[in-house]
Amino acid sequence: MSSDVIPAALVKRLRTTSAVTDEDIKAIHDLPISVREYPAERAIVRDGQKATECCLIIKGFCVRSKTTAEGRRQILSIHIPGEIPDLMSLHLHVMDHELSTLTPATLGFINHDTLRLLHRRQPNLADMFWRDTLIDAAMFREWIVNVGQRPAPARLAHVIVELRERLKVIGRIEGNSFEIPLTQEQIGEALGITAVHANRVIKQLRQDGIVAFHRGRVEVLDDDKLLELAGFDGRYLHLSPAL
Amino acid sequence: MPRFHFHIEENGRLIPDEEGQDFLDGDQVRKEAIATGASIARDAFMTGSACRVVVDVREENAPFMKVSITLDVEEKA
Questions:
Q1: Chain A nearest-CA residue for B10
Q2: Are A163 and A170 in contact (CB under 8 A)?
Q3: What domain range includes position A34?
Q4: Do B17 and A199 touch (CB under 8 A)?
Q5: Minimal CA–CA distance to A8: which of A79, A57, A78?
Q6: Are residues A125 and A224 in the same domain?
Q7: Which residue in B has a C-alpha nearest to residue A185's C-alpha?
Q8: E-only strand ranges, A112-200
Q9: What would the pLDDT profile of A80-101 be if each residue is shown by its tens digit?
Q10: Which chain B positions have a beta carbon within 8 Å of A200's beta carbon?
Q11: Residues on chain B touching A195 (C-beta within 8 angstroms)
């Protein structure tokens, strides 16, 4: 894999969300990144594990999750190419949740020592990655509001709209449809409802002419209705350096 | 273990479950049915879309269990 392709989505995202300089981009391209292929639904770093590297998603989808003592899994966030979902492990040494793949994925691992050195040499990049983890926290706040306060159809609508906004930044939206490779059970785990309830919600959104799911892809049938149902306000994604 | 289908009725309107799901034992089916009924009922009651939710669980085509949840509000004043 060429060195341009590995951080392509990351660079695209940083160009939109942060004030990156050409020097920053060059430093990212020069980073030693070790690329590994993962199958679907495989743990990358487990809860309780000590991490020594951060994981950049090059291709595929990942999730972060936590499982209760009774064995109920809550999906905490969904991640797409260009994101480094365990960036916090640079400072929080033992994982307090799990990062795993959702689909087969190409992952790039960056050693913690390498990242520390980069941050010292280029404080602008350190600021940018700090901002990245703050946006991550903002997304968690929205996720809490979503699962705590919205009815299930609105929860799903919100997750769909947010993912679309993020996929847009890295150029992964084709027309009205895009990838959401979650099974019914995983949608349930993300929304805090059972798989059967998730199935019922998916059917309702289809019947109401809002969105249709086809094998890991979602097709938006009525954008206005979708946005209204989701009650989406994208400020928390901070998708420009001014926000 | 055979597949279980969870048909949902809200105010008598049926939402069939064609796909069904596999479970390890009857206890898991029971838990899933109650959790599903409770969470669908919560949404239905809060949004006012229905006041009765039934989860009709079938093992292949045979009745297996039925969970019914009804909202009953008595105005006292």
A1: A200
A2: no
A3: 8-143
A4: yes
A5: A57
A6: no
A7: B21
A8: 177-179
A9: 999 999 999 999 999 999 999 9
A10: 8, 15, 40
A11: 21, 32
